[in-house]
Write a structure and sequence with these properties.
Elements (H helix, E strand, L loop, with lengths): L1 E5 L3 H12 L3 E6 L2 H10 L3 E4 L5 H6 L7 E4 L4 H13 L4 E5 L3 H5 L1 H8 L3 E3 L1 H14 L5 E5 L4 E7 L14 H5 L4 E7 L2 E3 L12 E6 L1 H10 L9 E5 L3 H12 L3 E6 L2 H10 L4 E4 L5 H6 L7 E4 L4 H13 L4 E5 L4 H5 L8 E2 L1 H18 L5 E7 L4 E7 L20 E8 L2 E3 L12 E6 L13
Parallel strand pairs: 1-2, 1-4, 2-3, 4-5, 5-6, 12-13, 12-15, 13-14, 15-16, 16-17
Antiparallel strand pairs: 7-8, 8-11, 9-10, 9-11, 18-19, 19-22, 20-21, 20-22
Helix pairs in contact: 1-15, 7-10, 7-15
Length: about 450
């Protein structure tokens, strides 16, 4: 697809990277000449210096021939103007980034009024991701498929785990749970494991199954979920506001640490059910005074990655059951792969993945079978939900008879309302949906997994 991206900041660059890796034709526009040059040096995209609000600049960028315009600057008003101008000049679809919670609340009305196809809010995406993880704290990440009936969780095997030294083919007989390990990261490498693969402490896994089966599996493996009742948040950002509301609605108690007094007063008005503390969460005495040792979970949400990392490590050392660290730059994740931390949330990457799903959905209307898409293990693995048409070569044959490529695995099959973990005897029917996990990027149809 031909995509025009307005804004070459961190968000715009993350979107550019993800969509260019999937083979889309990208044109990137920004006012800043240095940012435009940096983008052209890194990615194989067309770049143009100028304002995305300008009709002349949009014409020069070829907007009328574009399938999609994405306005991703840090200014909601600018993004809205870019979208309206682009639609006026003939772009098929327009998506905008929003930051203002007021816009988010009135999203549907404003999209209809201004002809915006969709909007995305990285802060809200991050808050929802954190809330999902806190609802299943054993996991480092949780993605849902089949309208919530199947989940894919990320989990690092701890020291002295029952999983250490166990061949994968013995999992079901040993733990009596209908789950499937779909991908494994070990020693910096990611792969799709076979039955003779032996699990080791430190391996990072992606495991598919219904939530009840996943809980049974983790309990049998000796990793029992402890319900999260009280949470400490560090940093009074927009993410903290969105997250606090979600956690309060789910019955958790929230303490929020914010160093700026004026912001604390705003937060007290916005979040009357939250205990707002005017204090520097990066200071040990403040954390101890506010009960870090008794907290079930700690979430670092400041705008400084270094502060978030250091304080998250301290919280983990203090015995906090679940620690989540927000990062603006995802390059820290690989550097911290052997640290005590295992759960990171990067808003720009979450939003970029959401946009990749949106673009896949547009292609779906043109013949692709992708229902949903998630990127896992530092974006090195994809989990794709496909609708299976009668034309597919997967239909009517036992999976054991199919020549599935070694870089792909069918993790689950959805037949009506029933979700099953497949075996070699499983037969897929037309109208089913299948969740495929692969180390390959850009799958468009289920038959792409065949050799």
């Amino acid at each position: 697809m031909k995509v025009l991206i307005i804004g070459a900041g961190k968000m715009g660059m993350a979107i550019t990277r993800q969509l260019s890796e999937e083979g889309h034709d990208i044109t990137l526009v920004d006012r800043d000449a240095d940012k435009v040059k940096a983008a052209s040096d890194i990615y194989d995209v067309i770049t143009l210096q100028g304002s995305g609000e300008s009709f002349d600049v949009l014409r020069s960028a070829g907007v009328k021939d574009m399938d999609l315009l994405i306005a991703a600057t840090g200014d909601d008003a600018v993004n809205l103007v870019c979208s309206v101008a682009g639609r006026h000049l003939g772009v098929r679809e327009a998506v905008i980034r929003v930051k203002d919670p007021e816009f988010t609340r009135e999203r549907e009305m404003l999209q209809k009024a201004f002809g915006v196809s969709a909007s995305f809010n990285p802060d809200l995406e991050a808050a929802s991701e954190i809330a999902r993880i806190l609802s299943f704290p054993t996991a480092a990440r949780v993605e849902t498929f089949a309208r919530g009936r199947s989940e894919l969780v990320e989990y690092r095997i701890p020291a002295e785990s029952h999983l250490h030294g166990l061949p994968m083919k013995e999992l079901r007989s040993r733990f009596h749970a209908q789950v499937l390990i779909c991908a494994v990261e070990r020693d910096g490498k990611v792969g799709i494991p076979k039955g003779d693969f032996v699990l080791r402490s430190g391996h990072r896994l992606n495991i598919a199954g219904a939530r009840s089966e996943l809980r049974r599996f983790f309990s049998a493996a000796g990793s029992k979920d402890k319900s999260i009742r009280n949470v400490i948040l560090m940093g009074g950002s927009r993410i903290a506001v969105y997250l606090s509301r979600q956690l309060i609605a789910s019955g958790m108690s929230v303490t929020l640490l914010e160093r700026d007094r004026a912001r604390c007063e705003e937060l007290c008005t916005l979040l009357p059910e939250v205990t707002v503390i005017n204090g520097d969460g990066s200071k040990q005495e403040v954390l101890l005074e506010e009960g870090i040792r008794k907290a079930d979970a700690f979430v670092a949400l400041t705008g400084f990655d270094e502060d978030n990392i250091i304080v998250s490590m301290y919280a983990a050392d203090m015995g906090v059951g679940k620690v989540i660290c927000k990062l603006s730059d995802d390059h820290f994740v690989s550097m911290l792969s052997r640290s005590s931390l295992d759960t990171f949330v990067c808003p720009k990457m979450l939003a970029a993945s959401e946009l990749a799903r949106y673009v896949r959905a547009l292609k779906n209307a043109e013949g692709s079978s992708v229902e949903s898409l998630y990127r896992l293990i530092d974006n090195r693995v994809e989990a794709v939900e496909f609708s299976i048409g009668a034309w597919s070569s997967l239909v009517g044959k036992p999976l054991m008879s199919l020549k599935i490529a070694p870089d792909a695995l069918i993790a689950a099959v959805i037949h009506g309302s029933e979700v099953s973990i497949p075996s070699g005897n499983t037969v897929i029917s037309a109208g089913d949906r299948a969740i495929v996990v692969t180390t390959r990027s850009g799958l468009q149809n289920p038959d792409d997994i065949l050799e």
